[in-house]
Amino acid sequence: MTEHPRPSFALSGPSIELDGRTHAVRGDLADIALAGKLFVPHYAKPMEMRCTTAATLHAEADAQSDTLAILEADARFMAVDMAGGWAWGFAANGHIVGYISLDLLDQVT
Q: Which residue from 22, 39, 69, 79 lies 20 to 30 Å from 91 (Cα-Cα)?
C-alpha cells in the first residue's frame, strides 16, 4: 500500500492590515464592506442610527470602559450589531469603532 502525501493549502493574494479602531471587525462579525478582504463567520450591513443627545462612544459594552469619542446630538452612528442594550459599530464621521448605549440612538428612516 502506497501512502500518498497530504495535500497542502495556502491562502494567497493581497493582505490588508486592519486597525480595530477604524475598521468594524471583531472575531465573530464584520462590516459587510470588509467582505472579500478578510474572513469572519458573519458580515452585517450597518444600520444608520442617529444620536438623540450627546453620546459617549465606549471601547466596550460597559459605561465604565474607556471613552473613545463623544458624539454630538444628531451625529450619525452606523450600527453593525445591537445586543444587550448596546450598539457596536462606527461613527459615520471619523469612522471610530466602538459601543454606544441603545438608549441614546434612534434609527434613521
A: 39
Q: pLDDT per residue over 21-78, tens digit each?
A: 898 998 899 999 988 888 889 999 999 999 999 999 999 999 999 999 999 999 999 9
Which amino acid, residue 92? A
d(CA 90, CA 80): 8
Provide CB contacts within 8 A for 26, sequence distance 6+. 40, 88
Strand 86-91 with 97-101, pairing: antiparallel
Q: Spell out the CATH class of 29-107.
A: mainly beta
CA 68-71-73 angle, 5° bins: 160
Calculate Rg over the CA atoms of the chain: 18
68: left (phi over 0), alpha (psi -120 to 50) or beta: alpha
